[in-house]
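Mods, move this if it's the wrong board.
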Amino acid sequence: MTEYVLPADESGFQLRLGWDNPMMTFFGQVVRPSGCVDVDDEILLWLGSEAREVLTVEALQAGLSAYRSIPPDILLLLRRDRIASVDRGPSALQRKMVDLLPKSDPPPYDGFAVGFHVLCQEPDGEWFYHLPAATEREAEDEASSLLRDGCKAKIMSGPINIEVELALLNRT
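Not the wrong board. Structure tokens:
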């Protein structure tokens, strides 16, 4: 799990956000300023407390926008954190623990993925798996976001073997 803490700004709210790989979700917490009268309720908002609740940084940003925005450099780090964990997925123990929660996590990753998938090419030419998407529209939105960030994007629908697809793209 990664976590970034953004100190309070003029809004007075601190943000804690990151990627929780066992839960396969981004998370964000809006925290009251220290010394606040209502110390029993330090966390005002907690997104990503359930498995697969927040799948994109755009969804995280939208959920937190009433309190403050996430700087572009942190958005990029969040995307990279998710990408870095996509090939290892939750461990067997982590999957069992998530199963105890109200929402269950997706089936274990077996090399093949179904649904829509967004692949991204960084400026250095390396392709990597970006994220799964529940719908074609969600995949298109994420691909558009990557293009705005200066990356090429490719949408695939599966079942696909992600490792094979990436090997083919990176070989050419």
